[in-house]
Design brief:
It is a single chain. By secondary structure, the chain is mostly helical. About 40% of the residues lie in helices and about 0% in strands. Strands 1-2 form a two-stranded antiparallel ribbon. The longest helix is centred in the last third of the chain and has 19 residues. The two termini are about 25 Å apart. InterPro entries: Inositol_oxygenase. Its EC number is 1.13.99.1. It is an enzyme of class 1 (oxidoreductase).
């Protein structure tokens, strides 16, 4: 598989200036400028601004319907049931790279910015981070594996519906913050009017730590469980990124900070670093898989066992 990823320098603007000659404005806007800091492209894969849930398009209508179903179905009972069922990790055994290849069959219906197979996004994210943070190899690997929980869409994992696998995540068991995208649909969630679940703290206490908070079920929480139970040696910040990278109400709107503890606050710094690569690398850039695969295999061997229980 060949996916081209243009690495270039912006030192003094000279090299980029030469490369941009004869390149259209649209092509320039989809390039990732990584040296001297990450510069986000102006538009996503569809030519729209990133995470624009209001721009009129067929894709937008599908995304809104996704969140309607998601917000109705993600209840405390549902999350507990999924964590109990999938936390057993008795579905199969496979390596991290085998999971990357399995995931390549799917496109995320909740994402207004991306219509590419998942492995392309994973490598775009990992390579962008690698360019800017060459010494943080754990962060490169986190970029590669952060979405592997989307294998829940596969038939061998129960073929869960997309609303139970992808999309923005948020706590259940307390009030749904109004910053959550398409918040209005929570009114049809059975927990919405439950006095045990619809207050600021709900079933939690101030500073209890996000690790003690039930998050809406999906690929984030599943991959977190897989990594943790398979005894990964990734630092806690890596696990934090995996579990909360879709928690936009927190890292975009700073909702639910009252549930965080000191460790969460420290790890949040890395999540904010990661987030810009996760979001803004979703453009028409490409990576040569065969070229970068040996590097990522070496990281997998460093931080994970050869085979994982899933």
């Amino acid at each position: 598989m060949t996916i081209i990823f243009d690495r270039h320098s912006d030192q003094n603007g000279d090299e980029i200036g030469e490369k941009n000659q004869g390149i259209t404005k649209e092509e320039q806007e989809t390039e990732l400028v990584l040296d001297a800091g990450f510069e986000a492209p102006h538009t996503n894969s569809f030519g729209h601004t990133f995470r624009d849930y209001d721009v009129e398009s067929e894709r937008r209508r599908g995304v809104e319907e996704f969140y309607r179903v998601n917000h109705i179905g993600q209840t405390v009972d549902f999350v507990r049931k999924m964590r109990d069922e999938y936390g057993k990790l008795n579905r199969t055994e496979m390596s991290i790279w085998e999971c990357c290849e399995l995931l390549n069959e799917f496109i995320d219906e909740s994402d207004p910015d991306l219509d590419e197979p998942q492995i392309e996004h994973l490598l775009q994210t990992a390579e962008a981070i690698r360019k800017d943070y060459p010494d943080e190899d754990w962060l490169h690997l986190t970029g590669l594996i952060h979405d592997l929980g989307k294998v829940l869409l596969h038939s061998s994992f129960g073929e869960l519906p997309q609303w139970a696998v992808v999309g923005d995540t948020y706590p259940v068991g307390c009030a749904f913050d109004e910053s959550i995208v398409h918040h209005k649909y929570f009114k049809e969630n059975q927990d919405y009017d439950n006095p045990s679940y619809n207050t600021k703290y709900g079933i939690y206490t101030e500073g209890c730590g996000l690790d003690n908070v039930l998050m809406s079920w999906g690929h984030d929480d599943y991959m977190y469980l897989v990594a943790k139970e398979n005894q990964t040696t990734l630092p806690s910040a890596g696990l934090f990124i995996i579990r909360y990278h879709s928690f936009y109400a927190l890292h975009k709107s700073e909702a639910y900070k009252h549930l965080m503890n000191d460790e969460d606050t420290e790890n949040m710094k890395w999540l904010k670093v990661f987030n810009k690569y996760d979001l803004y690398s979703k453009s028409k850039v490409r990576v040569n898989v065969d070229e970068v695969k040996p590097y990522y295999l070496s990281l997998i061997n460093k931080y994970f066992p050869a085979k994982l229980k899933w």
